[in-house]
Design a protein that fits this description.
CATH topology of the largest domain: Rossmann fold
Strand order of the largest sheet: 1-2-10-7-8-9
Largest sheet: 6 strands, mixed
Helix content: 40-55%
Distance between the termini: 47 Å
Number of domains: 2
Structural class: alpha/beta
Number of helices: 13
Number of strands: 10
Length: 330
């Protein structure tokens, strides 16, 4: 039996009204040089053009609005690799609610600065996102804070507004490639696709070094991984969300795993062919298209550029030919 859709049309329209108070529609452009390169019509959904430089801001706004309706807590705590951790303080500032964000060791310095800029207290704990998430859960109990999860129906509803913009602007898309971190983006795209009654294929893209969702999709059930090793921090998940996976299993055509070298090449291509900066996760969808170039020849395809928040040193190394970031082989 298919899972219950993550939202209905009334909820999606309400989310759009909420998001529009702070985030205008982001563009989706058809880029001719990408078409030449891949042999198909390529549309890029530019979520790197939001106020926080990533799609997550939409979900933060709808999540905080729901909290406000239910009764605001004295403070919030969440874990992140950066973009979710910007979206929550961005939205919480509208209600005067303080936010604590837990990041793992070695997290993006630029994303940490941005989170502090939006008003968050940023704490460092753990070797990766999943350890940071466990610590955030502990802090919630110790400090009496409300824990904001990385995957939640209210977050998905907000994120779905970008999918609504894309599908109502670009008609007859054959395939949409979506990066998978914790799953809100791909679940949002699946939900809107289904609400509109479209037959567009939705393809998820993970990093080969963080294949939790790819392995789980293959197995048909959650398959946590021992590690998540990729410079694309936005997709560095090793413990998939069961609720997200249920939606992905029912609605995605397939889930790909792309290497860091493929992601780095997609970052370079996006810069040279569209003059846009993409972080690793933001380029993962294009890397997925590149991997399936022969399959998509002559078709109309969209890729989600979910964010552009990449550290300067990492981006410089990638542009110089590195396969990941500083210290990565060319």
């Amino acid at each position: 039996m298919a899972p219950t859709p993550p939202f209905n049309r009334q909820e999606l329209d309400a989310a759009l009204r909420t998001v529009r108070q702070a985030v205008p529609p982001t563009p989706q452009y058809r880029w001719p040089l990408l078409a030449e390169r891949y042999g198909c019509e390529v549309w890029v959904k530019h979520e790197n053009h939001t106020p926080t430089g990533a799609f997550k801001v939409r979900g933060g706004l709808t999540y905080l609005e729901q909290l406000a309706e239910e009764g605001l807590p004295p403070g919030l705590v969440t874990a992140t690799r950066g973009n979710h951790g910007q979206s929550i303080p961005f939205a919480a500032a509208r209600y005067g609610v303080p936010v604590t964000v837990v990041v793992p060791e070695g997290n993006s310095t630029d994303k940490n600065r941005a989170m502090r800029g939006w008003g968050a207290e940023v704490l460092t704990h753990g070797r990766d996102f999943d350890e940071a998430r466990a610590f955030a859960n502990e802090l919630a109990g110790e400090r009496g804070l409300a824990l904001v999860p990385s995957f939640h129906p209210a977050l998905v509803r907000g994120v779905a507004t970008y999918a609504l913009e894309l599908f109502t602007t670009v008609q007859h898309l054959d395939t949409v490639y979506v990066p998978i971190g914790m799953g809100s983006g791909i679940c949002a795209v699946i939900g809107v696709r289904d609400l509109l009654g479209l037959d567009t294929e939705v393809v998820g893209v993970t990093a080969a070094g963080a294949p939790a969702y790819a392995e789980s999709f293959r197995a048909g059930q959650p398959r946590p991984q021992p590690q998540a090793r990729t410079f694309a921090d936005g997709v560095a998940c090793r413990d998939p969300d069961a609720g997200a996976l249920k939606i992905i299993l029912a609605g995605a055509a397939r889930v790909l795993a792309v290497t860091d070298a493929e992601i780095a090449e997609a970052m370079r291509v996006l810069f040279t062919d569209t003059h846009n900066v993409a972080e690793g996760a933001g380029a993962a969808a294009l890397a997925g298209l590149a991997q399936e170039q022969a399959k998509q020849r002559g078709k109309r395809v969209a890729v989600i550029l979910c964010g552009g928040n990449v550290d300067t040193a990492v981006f410089a190394a990638v542009l110089q030919g590195a396969a990941g970031g500083p210290g990565s082989p060319a």
